[in-house]
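[Structure tokenization] protein backbone as discrete codes

[Encoding] learned vocabulary of local backbone shapes

[Begin record] amino acids and matching fold tokens:

___
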Amino acid sequence: METIEARPAGAEARRYFRRWVRNEVDLPAKLEVLDGSGKKVNSGAAVIRDVSLRGALLTRIKLKKAVLPACAFHVRLTFSSDKYRGIGALCRPIRFGRGPEFELAVEFVDFWARAGSKRSGKTD
């Protein structure tokens, strides 16, 4: 007799099949869309909904122009929250999201951090 085990559904199920675990976050970011030569062709903002060591899912994307290149492109993210200000990533699009709003899954290609980023607020 074969035993049937209950399996997790949805996001919980994907956690077991991913090589890199994704962590749910809610991080605002500025984004720039770059063509194959690195020229900025569009810009806007997004919210990073989940992140792993290899990539992220961008949601609530708002672009100045409602277009993306028809050829290969990259996305340059700059984190907007105070905690991560000055940190950014160059990303390669992997797939468009499956949600009811425009989403983009990206793979990280490179990271950077600006040293000496100014923080708001005084300490006495």
About this structure: Residues 120-124 have pLDDT under 50 and may be disordered. The beta strands are 23-34, 40-51, 55-63, 74-79, 87-96, 104-113.
